[in-house]
Design a protein that fits this description.
Elements: H1 2-49, H2 54-117, H3 119-147
């Protein structure tokens, strides 16, 4: 009985810690990488598209890159935080149901988000949220089956 309680506590703690660490690290890395890539791509496109004076193009491009980077990082961090909170709250009590619900929810979200911010969030959802939810929930379900949580 003591062993089972200890194992259950350890499984929960480890799953939460791992998920939290992964979420923070991945969010920071992804936001940084995406901001750089997007800024470079946008700067090239914007410069070629707008053929005003050199001064106007230069100022406008830099202002836009600055705004874009902040917007990307904000969206990324908000989504990470929301996904993290949502998964922690529901996975503990409804691990199996949540996994099934996520599949259905993702289908609805996918259509709207793909249209709304296109490549950026499309990549973000597939890489980050799928990895996070699969890691966290699968670990938790495994613990549930082995330790009879």
């Amino acid at each position: 009985m003591h062993a089972r309680t200890h194992a259950r506590t350890h499984a929960r703690t480890h799953a939460r810690t791992h998920a939290r660490t992964h979420a923070r690290t991945h969010a920071r890395t992804h936001a940084r990488t995406h901001a750089r890539t997007h800024a470079r791509t946008h700067a090239r496109t914007h410069t070629h598209t707008h053929t005003h004076t050199h001064t106007h193009t230069h100022t406008h491009t830099h202002t836009h890159i600055h705004t874009t980077m902040h917007a990307c990082i904000y969206v990324c961090m908000y989504a990470c935080m929301h996904a993290c909170m949502h998964a922690h709250t529901h996975a503990r009590t409804h691990a199996r149901t949540h996994a099934r619900t996520h599949a259905r929810t993702h289908a609805c979200m996918h259509t709207y988000i793909h249209t709304y911010i296109h490549t950026y969030i499309h990549t973000y959802i597939h890489t980050y949220i799928h990895t996070y939810i699969h890691t966290y929930i699968h670990t938790y379900i495994y613990a549930h089956n082995v330790y009879q949580v």
